Amino acid sequence: MNVIGQPIPRADGRLKVTGKAPYTADLRLANAAHGAIVHSTIARGRTVSIDTSAAEKAPGVLAVFTYRNMPRMNPTPKPWSHLHPHGQSYLPLQDDKIHYAGQPIALVVAATLDQATYAGTLIKVEYESERPVVFDPKRALDKAIDPPQFLWPVASLVGDPDKAIAAAPVKVQQTYTIPDRHHNQMEPHATIAIWDAWGTLTLYETTQHIFGTKELVAIVLGVPPSKVNVVSEFLGGGFGGKGYVWPHTLMAAVAAKL
What we know:
Oligomer: single chain
CATH superfamily: Aldehyde oxidase/xanthine dehydrogenase, a/b hammerhead
Number of strands: 9
Structural class: alpha+beta
Order of helices and strands: HEEHEEEHEHEEHEH
Helix content: 10-25%
CATH architecture: Alpha-Beta Complex
Mean pLDDT: 90
Number of helices: 6
Number of domains: 1
Low-confidence stretches: none
């Protein structure tokens, strides 16, 4: 069949334009609990104390997790560590250290999202703040880390750049800067975690990397990959930002089991 020049409808087009495509956050499950993350307000340091007593007594709250009671997760050796954002090996709620502003410091689980979000505002945190990030890259070079690779080894060399520059009739020396960029997909990140009676975890996840997510989650939780199913039927944009396993995915998987 010749399809060149012919209008070919997308298999999922009608579902998307009519609003019937089921995205992860659209799924409604009976008796589902909801989680809300409490984020760090400092960029670097440690949590000296976390008072969750008021949050635990708030209406609808089922559990409150911090580094003190979150089950321990297994570290992710290479090659799977690249599935963390920017190759980091950070695992959520495992100790009192703060590495960046907005880092998860608590997870509130409640009967509704509103109840979980409200209870999160009741958590009182005392920090020990350290000197934060250095905004001038040149000042941070002496403490910079040169990782052996990110994702996979990359080599690109054509010709002799030093020789070409030395022989160039015109030389321009200038420093250029670009702003940071953020993936601004229409669909927000979401995770739904379900454990069945046989110890199998099903993750409804906004991910571009189904099999990588399956493998990494299995490593972190210490279960066989055959015990982890990842479902991502529709994705409302990702641009690479949904190619990683983010902290909320791991926290949802662990909290759903308890």
